[in-house]
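User: Just a sanity check before I run the rest of the batch. Below are the structure tokens for the first item. I only need the designed sequence back.
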């Protein structure tokens, strides 16, 4: 009888000890917060996404194109003539710079480094204060333009020439936005501006 009593109290003690511990542990377990989605979609924004648009001017003919990169704060970092330099737009502000019905394509870099490129863009966009497309060294921050800035983000942030043309920062050249639709990038999805 004494052994039964002792086993009962030991079991009761363990139950009283374990239940409060597990209850407190479950109440403090953090829950994952999902990334925001691209407007009007269920497509999650990811750090390092490269957004490409053809910037059509009312037709299906690709005039020039535009690229930006999603940062860790889910802002889109890019260089635009509208502000004559670098900007950090919310996704809604970024979309407002595009025409209604225009398609924005989401590209993923196939290799490591996109998050580092996004961090570099976030740290350096405000250093661009002059928009101009020129045949200059790729290291030059001013003047600058969208695709050269994103190339710089991958080159300095991730150590990659994403055009796969053995370019360096001392190369004289022009980087075209459409280059981000191939050469190491994969089309992930797209969405339309409303």
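Assistant: Here's the designed sequence for the first item:
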């Amino acid at each position: 009888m004494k052994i039964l009593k002792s086993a009962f109290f030991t079991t009761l003690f363990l139950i009283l000890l374990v239940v409060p511990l597990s209850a407190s542990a479950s109440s403090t377990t953090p829950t994952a917060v999902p990334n925001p989605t691209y407007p009007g979609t269920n497509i999650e924004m990811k750090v390092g996404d490269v957004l490409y648009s053809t910037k059509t001017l009312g037709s299906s003919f690709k005039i020039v194109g535009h690229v930006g990169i999603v940062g860790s704060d889910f802002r889109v970092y890019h260089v635009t003539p509208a502000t004559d330099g670098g900007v950090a737009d919310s996704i809604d502000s970024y979309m407002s710079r595009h025409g209604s019905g225009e398609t924005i394509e989401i590209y993923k870099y196939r290799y490591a480094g996109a998050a580092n490129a996004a961090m570099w863009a976030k740290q350096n966009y405000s250093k661009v204060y002059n928009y101009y497309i020129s045949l200059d060294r790729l290291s030059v921050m001013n003047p600058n333009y969208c695709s050269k800035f994103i190339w710089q983000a991958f080159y300095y942030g991730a150590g990659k020439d994403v055009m796969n043309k053995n370019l360096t920062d001392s190369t004289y050249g022009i980087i075209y936005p459409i280059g981000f639709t191939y050469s190491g990038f994969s089309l992930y999805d797209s969405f339309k501006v409303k």
